[in-house]
Write a structure and sequence with these properties.
Layout: E1 2-6, E2 14-19, E3 27-32, E4 45-47, E5 51-55, E6 61-64, E7 67-70, E8 75-79, E9 84-85, E10 98-103, H1 115-121, E11 137-140, H2 146-162, H3 167-186, H4 199-211, H5 218-225, H6 229-240, H7 244-262, H8 267-273, H9 279-290, H10 294-299
Parallel strand pairs: 2-4
Antiparallel strand pairs: 1-2, 3-10, 4-9, 5-8, 5-10, 6-7, 8-11
Helix pairs in contact: 1-4, 2-3, 4-5, 4-7, 8-9
């Protein structure tokens, strides 16, 4: 699994995107302990994909938004796309022992809408809809349920590590079980923070979902939702950490990966079906996002099995 860093600017921290290889399940897990420093970023940052951070035991500190949370046993942090994770100091994880699980909308099936829209429409993803990039939602797993939670995460990590026959299906099944458990845990906490808390964003991503296969610009989206392009850019970037055009491109790349992996369509036809009538422009955009051409990405599929 590869993550891609978009550099920070005046209005937002660095933002990370997940880029699964062909055939690879779009989910990753890693252990959060004192030796995690060599495995990931420690700067203030956000992700454009959702995730969970679970601590079965007490110890350490997790920084989200402007808060530093002393970790207690059973803490579960629901990290929505765009949530700002604070700079991790060297001592924060010295006494910690937890797990992070991150995934993309693709993990919930080929028919799930791509990009930000899925997190506002899929029944298992409502805990991730909270109206603003301010920091992760903190929940508490009851003591009696903590062994089961840890076993689920360990089983997911084991499948991703061992990569035996059927590991993709098994890993995604374990992820779904985790999301069911999160939804049940959060049901009484986030009822007023569902899709209707951000009707503008819901409209924006509905337009992208409906029209991404055709020519679509920031101005087109702004016209569809009846606000100025400048105001739309500011709002979407503030709430999600990315621009409207970046979300249009991301939605197109989600579908392009699906078509490249599941069909024998020529690369140019794949590009045409996801909104790139110019095959060369599609190949350049895909290469910029994934670090590899669409043809090479497709050919790499069997090697990843």
């Amino acid at each position: 699994m590869r993550t891609v860093r978009a550099a920070p600017d005046r209005d937002r921290p660095a933002t990370y995107s997940m880029r699964p290889a062909p055939g690879e399940p779009p989910v990753m897990a890693w252990r959060l302990t004192h030796d995690w420093q060599s495995q990931g970023p420690f700067e203030e940052h956000a992700h454009d994909f959702p995730g969970l951070v679970y601590f079965p035991t007490s110890g350490g500190t997790l920084r989200t938004g402007r808060r530093a949370w002393p970790v207690a046993a059973g803490d579960l942090f629901v990290v929505a796309p765009g949530d700002v994770m604070g700079h991790v100091h060297a001592a924060d994880l010295a006494d910690a022992d937890g797990w992070g699980v991150f995934f993309t909308a693709d993990a919930l099936g080929p028919d799930v809408p791509g990009a930000h829209l899925a997190w506002r429409t899929h029944p298992l993803l409502f805990p991730f809809v909270r109206g603003g990039a301010i920091g992760a939602l903190r929940l508490r797993v009851p003591a009696a349920d903590r062994p089961t939670w840890l076993a689920r995460v360990l089983a997911l990590d084991d499948e991703l590590t061992r990569r035996e026959d059927g590991y993709r299906e098994a890993a995604l099944a374990h992820l779904v079980l985790l999301l069911v458990a999160v939804s049940r845990l959060a049901a009484d906490v986030v009822g007023d923070l569902r899709e209707n808390s951000e009707p503008l964003l819901a409209e924006v991503f509905a337009v992208i979902e409906e029209r991404y296969p055709e020519p679509l610009s920031l101005r087109d989206v702004a016209t569809a939702v009846n606000i100025s392009p400048g105001h739309l850019t500011t709002t979407v970037r503030k709430r999600t950490g990315r621009t409207v055009q970046e979300w249009i491109t991301e939605r197109r790349m989600v579908q392009a990966r699906r078509l490249l992996a599941a069909t024998d369509l020529p690369v140019g036809e794949v590009g045409r079906r996801v909104g790139f009538p110019d095959a060369g422009y599609f190949a350049r955009t895909f290469g910029k996002v994934h670090g590899i051409s669409p043809a090479r990405w497709r050919r790499a599929g069997p090697a990843q099995a």
